[in-house]
């Protein structure tokens, strides 16, 4: 059912539900298909047996031809899935004169209506209506008038054809609903992986910038006292370990999940607003001059996590592009209004290693803020500072996902 890129699945599902196999292609029957085929065979055989008593006044050669063609047409019902159009055309043409082929022709018409689109089944239906004319004129029964027999035959054709169209429409609806459900599930997984990728980008960027900062300090201060060198080496080891742990996590999450996987969220606890002091203290230990003004508390976990990531990325950018400059982080907000953060640092930087950056972090922060229903701005001010500011809505009542 599922081929490379999902293409085989998208073709196989309507083929299974609608039976739209290629003409002459071998069809693999399920248990349900076997039951339906047996019922159709018994139906065609029953209609054929009902017509046998009507042959008593026919010539013996014609009776023999009727019986042989009737038996062959009933046996041909087992080929209706493989050659539905060909079987319908043959039985419809034979039923224009032979009476015992009528049961198989009815089954063939139903099969074409179910397994083929109207542009194919419609002409077969029209051929069946045309074949009624020679049958009514040449094989009319004595107890029914010609108009009544034509009306009866036409009613049977329309009823069988309409039944097949309804069955096909229902199968198309089922296929459409399944397709929508499958697409929705794939979209949900993709969005979840993208969300986790954004989370990991922020985490890994922070860890790797810390590594680069301490490594740069060792490079430019090879004559530093042994305790400072030991502290920098310990920080490198710790951040390298955490970075590897985060990298293993993102690889495991972004790897193709098994079909029965219901949750792609990492098992590790996610940071919240209460973890901001820890983040600031970690940056201070790395040599940054950071001041935190936290005037908000009890924010929902989802809201706090978004603000934490924004501050984390802003500090990473300040460490990259304004090394040694003091940084001020101000967080304010209240329930029912909004939660805001402002990260400021001078544009000047002390001499040292300037870490490379492609600007993807600020783009990611803008996307994060917009997905949370807020906004973000960044840029230089006339006072010679670079500011990253974000405003996130803080509703009075939080949803379960926010809490």
Strand tally is 5
Taken as a percent bin, the fraction of beta residues is 5-15%
**Protein structure class:** alpha+beta
Q: Largest sheet at a glance?
A: 5 strands, mixed
Helix content: 55-70%
Domain tally: 2
**Biggest sheet: strand arrangement:** 1-2-3-5-4
Unreliable spans = 1-13, 258-267, 399-403
List the total number of helices: 11
Distance between the first and last residues' Cα: 40 Å
> Rg from C-alpha positions?
38 Å
Q: Could you walk me through the main structural features you see in this protein, from its secondary elements to its overall organization?
A:
The structure is a single chain. The chain has 403 residues and is of the alpha+beta class. The protein has two domains: 179 residues, no CATH class; 134 residues, Heat Shock Protein 90, CATH 3.30.565.10. It is built from eleven helices and five strands, in the order αααααααααβαββαββ. Strands 1-2-3-5-4 form a five-stranded mixed sheet, covered by helices on one side. α1 packs antiparallel against α7 and α4 packs parallel to α6. The chain is rod-shaped and about 120 Å long. GO terms for molecular function: ATP binding; phosphorelay sensor kinase activity; protein dimerization activity. Its EC number is 2.7.13.3. It holds the Pfam family HisKA_3.
